[in-house]
From TrEMBL:
UniProt xrefs under SMART domains: AAA
A Pfam family the protein falls into: ABC_tran
Keywords: ATP-binding, Nucleotide-binding, Transport
Residues covered by the ABC transporter domain: 5-225
Protein name per UniProt: ATP-binding cassette domain-containing protein
Keyword Signal on entry: no
GO MF entry, a single one: ATP binding
Amino acid sequence: MQRELRLDGVGRRYGLRGPWVLRGVDLSVPPGALVRVEGTNGTGKSTLLRLLAGIDAPTEGRVTGRPRTAYVPERFPPALPFTAAAYLTHLGTVHGLSRRAAARAAGQWLDRLGAAGYASTPLARLSKGSSQKVAVAQALLAEPELLVLDEAWTGLDTDARAELERAVAERTASGGAVVFVDHDPSRLAGAPDAAYTVRDGTLHRRTEPAGAPAGPRVAIRVRGPAGAGLPADVVRIAASAEESGPGRYDLTVPASHSDVLLRTLLTARPPWHVVSVHAQEGPR
């Protein structure tokens, strides 16, 4: 069972006498959580994400309960001697997949992100946007327990940005955790379970991301077998769930997560019937 990732009194500086980039950071990331991290440039957001991903080790403090983690860095190094498909297949085997499973997952994610046409293209010849799609794909190959995204939407086209949002919803719906930084305050608006600001080398929890709107939501009315409770994955995704009668529920979900919730309902066993779906503006 996946454990809660915890940072206790964590600090990080570079060099024995270098200034502290972060200090006294306490943070818990439970399974299934979606966490947004904010802050101005140079405040230590990327350092925090590298600590969460296990790329950097803390100078002081403790990190415990580390899950199987994948990371999309702010800058992806494209000058590697692989084609896109070969690189992803190699990374998949590093993550523990068989070569066949890794190649299949590589193809699926390149297709989902709109980069299937570049599967045989050397990484060094990819555009910045296509390189970013490969960076996102490598992090999603093996269904990580913790997904860490550092400005991962930057450089993606509209369809790929939406696909990454769906992938985030899929990860959290399946019990994985996601921590992300993004410069757009409307990114996944209304969806995060917690938001933090990095300021003056420390971490401050916010009830809502600074300047972020509540974001569009979708109201979904569903009907299932009398006496049946909602599937656990639906409960994790929904912002609210109200029982309106035996086996009947009115759900509210962030628009970015609605596709995943509907798919979860329609593939549930026993099956659930979607009675109605309509858009809302702002929280219910």
